Model the fold of this input.
Amino acid sequence: MEKVFLKVAAGEMEPAVWEQWWNSHQRELAKALNPYMWQRIMPPEWSADYYWMLKTQSGIAYYFYNQGRPVNCSDYYEQKAQEEKAENRRQAMQAFHSQTAPVRQQWEAYLALHPAKTVDFDWKSLQGTPPGQRPPRVFSYKKPRTPEEWKETGAEIKERLQENLQAKIAPLAKAYGMKKAGPQAFVRESNGLVFYLRFVGYFRGGGYEQLYHSFGPIYDIQAGPSRLPGFVTAGELFQKVQQDWGVLQYIPEGAVDAGRVERINRKFDDILAFLADGLFPEWQKIDSLETYFAKERMEYLKAAEVGPADLHTGRPMWNVRPGQNPDPWCADAYLFGVWNLLSGREEEGYRQLAECVNHGDGYMQQCLKECPTAYNDKRDPMAVLYYNAGLFLKTQQIVDATQRRQAIWDTYENIYHFMQYYHGLSKKVERDRNGKVV
Done:
């Protein structure tokens, strides 16, 4: 038995051969292994592939370790499992794209009739070590202990983050027409749409906590999930970004050595690829409110909201709107309600806006009691949301159709100017209780 186990540790048995040997020796194995060890080596879900063979190898390594005889394991099964996973994912995505082909083709046909300007930018030339990057600093200590040493280590990490952001992300953002909206944020407005990107930090870990991105109508607070296909916002490129994110987030317990600097450089390469080869080109397709709300796009987004099931976990590869209540603020009613109003579908628009206002009534009463001008505070997006919805809803009281249409557009203009400030496109502005910019 142990001779066979050693072959598995060395990566010298294929899954089918191992399965055949195990099945033909179960009676003897049951006597030699306790139930716990049996489960570790051959879980009930086991099937003849490299994913489960890697689990078996791990169980066998534990068996020898538990015997006081640790063994070195080959990485053969790990490599084959990665290849297997990539192939399984490719097949799943191929099937997914085949299933969604009808709605995707309708969306592509729409885009062909409404072409947007493309961006030709050599982003791959930005990968690697940032030009002029200072060589890794040699610290006199291995682990920071004093407040001064922790401060020094934190400053070193922040410098490495900033130099990568400036060398890789800033040029890409500029190529797509974005401007800086803060030390770690970029924004662009185009035809009533806002595109926003921000590295969130520094908080608990001392570095960048996350990468926040959003796009949509300028009147929207953009607090929900980005309305893009799930395989763009949560697919392979995004998942690669998420791996080892801690290298950007946490100040290390050891001094910042050359290895840590190189890992930061590589992680920014992953972020650059996600933005340049996934997110930004998808953004670029939508150049107007009409395209954003196009029926063909909405149907395609719905079809691409949940990804195909992972072969081993059974869970979707992505789910853009997980949970029982994906819209707790009732922000979608505001988003689509305003668009219906602007497009002349007043009955549906007012119905949706009333739903949003009623949903937020209790919050607004309490909020305005504590802070009468909360609707002017970009740090309180819920107050901005319900206040904006209320301004549009008030126009319903105007009986004359011509005057009502004018009031709708006047309300849109006032909200437009305030939301430019909200999204970081202009300096601070304020509104009076009637919603007029003062």
Summary: The chain has a mean pLDDT of 94. The chain is about 55% helix and 5% strand. The beta strands are 179-180, 185-190, 193-201, 208-217.
